[in-house]
Amino acid sequence: MANDDLQSKATDFVKKILSVGVGTIFLTEDALRTMVTDFKLPKELLTGLLQSANNTRKEFLQNLSHEVLETVMSRVDTAKVMAEFFSQNEIDIKIKISPRKKD
Fold this sequence. Notes:
Elements: H1 2-26, H2 29-36, H3 43-75, H4 78-88
Helix pairs in contact: 1-3, 2-3
């Protein structure tokens, strides 16, 4: 019976750890802070964890955007798209130059 209780607690702990891991990408810092307060961690460890989460989120989103852009660009002929755009549209460019005396 004690073994089942220990296994249940371990399973719950692993679920929480995985939730925090996935949450680092999708949750705000405040939501993450609320989630990890259940662990009753020291303030220094909590600060380090949140800083690591921010870095992980930033890196993940940069890699994701790079991969998406690379995939789209590899499938799109930009020269063809631009040629089609310019053949179907007129472009008006207006430039206004207003010289001012220097102070």
